[in-house]
Design a protein that fits this description.
Elements (H helix, E strand, L loop, with lengths): L2 H15 L15 E9 L3 E4 H5 L6 H8 L3 E4 L6 H16 L8 E5 L10 H9 L5 E5 L5 H14 L6 E8 L9 H4 L4 E10 L5 E9 L7 E2 L11 H5 L6 E2 L1 H22 L9 E4 L4 H11 L10 H4 L6 H11 L8 E8 L3 E8 L1
Parallel strand pairs: 4-5, 4-6, 11-12
Antiparallel strand pairs: 1-7, 2-3, 6-7, 8-13, 9-10, 12-13
Bound molecules: acetyl coenzyme *A.
Length: 355
């Protein structure tokens, strides 16, 4: 069978399954793929708002009322992002009784890799003993997990892979300026892993939206350490290796884009907001989540929020929240989960999943 015939077969299969039309293949898979299992790992050290009061000019009251955050987890000195990944990955694989040797691909979404290269995914592959898996990192800030989910699921839907591990993991504490009160109160460390596999018709990733607008590239960034501004004594002294953010601008963008991307993804899936069992938003700030939920007309009981305990864990935030939703019984077979995120780029993503 040549390439064209193969593509036609995939498309035909999708058409028969009703998941794809020739006109609207964008934002949908050619065959059903779902999250088979999840695992998460949060470092044990808890940094509370009261601890931060002793470090910078802030207060528990300010942090809670402006962000909804009370505490966050901080990785131990000897822990790097790949260590967090391994713990989350092992739990996901164990829960599915799926041996690492059977994995075809490992994707790690992160902005805090262990090092520039090799990729964190490569280190994870080695430690897991996933001998036949290929591995790469994906850097899209807080939006990275949904991007990874879509890439992994697309590969399975196309028949190229049978199982893919997608991990969202961050040690944001390592790129945080602990003297800058406007950012250091926001972030935390953590990881969660998802095992993707083919699923039955009508379940799994039903639709997705991915987007980027480089017009906002300056609003959320780390200046130094890349090819534009290599590391020097001066860049280190000037704090150019720390995350910088125009919080207000990101806030306004986030509220608007979360509503738009959510509605677009639901439309692609042929669903509307009343079908959503649980909104799983990027856990950045409770005010952003509340504003997005209000615009979407979703009551609080249909939104998952753990930002109070973990802060913003960037690429890890959505899979950590998904794991909590499944473990606590808030997401059960047949339920519709709407995941939506925004982040550096400025980028955005939404995914509709039938559990
Ligand atoms: N404690 C006390 N005061 C503070 C603190 C603090 N920790 N931080 C800022 N302030 C002060 C400011 O200096 C300012 O004082 P001023 O009025 O005297 O100048 C005042 O509080 C108000 O500051 P704003 O920045 O206007 O506060 P805002 O209500 O916008 O909240 C925040 C700031 C929490 C950062 C908010 O804008 C936000 O959440 N933005 C979105 C951030 C985000 O979600 N980023 C996600 C992407 S991260 C990624 O991709 C890795």
């Amino acid at each position: 069978m040549n390439e064209e015939e193969k593509m036609d077969r995939i498309l035909q299969k999708g058409l028969l399954q009703g998941s794809v039309t020739k006109e609207s293949r964008r934002g949908m898979l050619a065959a059903p793929v779902g999250i088979h299992s999840l695992g998460a790992y949060l470092p044990s050290r808890v940094l509370t708002n009261f601890d931060l009061e002793k470090m910078v000019d802030t207060s528990d009251e300010w942090i809670r009322t402006r962000t909804g955050i009370s505490s966050r987890r901080i990785a131990a000195a000897e822990e790097a992002t790949s260590d967090l990944c391994i713990k989350a990955a092992r739990q996901a694989l164990e829960r599915a009784s799926w041996p690492a040797e059977k994995l075809d691909l490992i994707i790690v979404a992160t902005v805090t890799p262990d090092m520039c290269f090799p990729s964190t995914a490569s280190l994870v592959q080695g430690t897991l003993g996933a001998e036949r898996a290929s591995a790469f990192d994906l850097m899209v800030g807080c939006t990275g997990f949904i991007y990874g989910l879509v890439m992994g699921a697309s590969g399975i839907a196309a028949g190229a892979f049978e199982s893919v591990l997608v991990i969202g993991a961050e040690c944001l504490s390592r790129i945080t300026n602990w003297e800058d009160r406007s950012t250091c109160v926001l972030f935390g460390d953590g990881a969660a892993a998802t095992l993707l596999r083919p699923t039955e018709e009508g379940r799994g990733l039903l639709s997705f939206v991915l987007g980027n607008d480089a017009g906002g590239a300056d609003k959320l960034k780390i200046n130094a350490g890349g090819s534009r501004m290599p590391a020097t004594e001066e860049t280190v002294r000037a704090g150019e290796h720390f995350l910088k953010m125009e919080g207000n601008e990101v806030f306004k963008f986030a509220v608007r884009i979360m509503e738009e991307a959510s509605l677009q993804a639901l439309e692609r899936a042929g669903l509307d907001i009343s079908d959503v069992t649980l909104l799983v938003p990027h856990q950045a700030n409770v005010r952003i989540m509340d504003a997005a939920a209000k615009r979407l007309n979703l009551p609080p009981e249909r939104i998952i929020s753990n930002v109070d305990r973990y802060g913003n864990t960037s690429a890890a935030s959505i899979p950590i929240a998904l794991d909590e939703a499944v473990q606590s019984g808030r997401l059960k077979k047949g339920d519709i989960a709407l995941c939506v995120s925004f982040g550096a780029g400025l980028s955005w993503a939404a995914a509709v999943l039938r559990w």
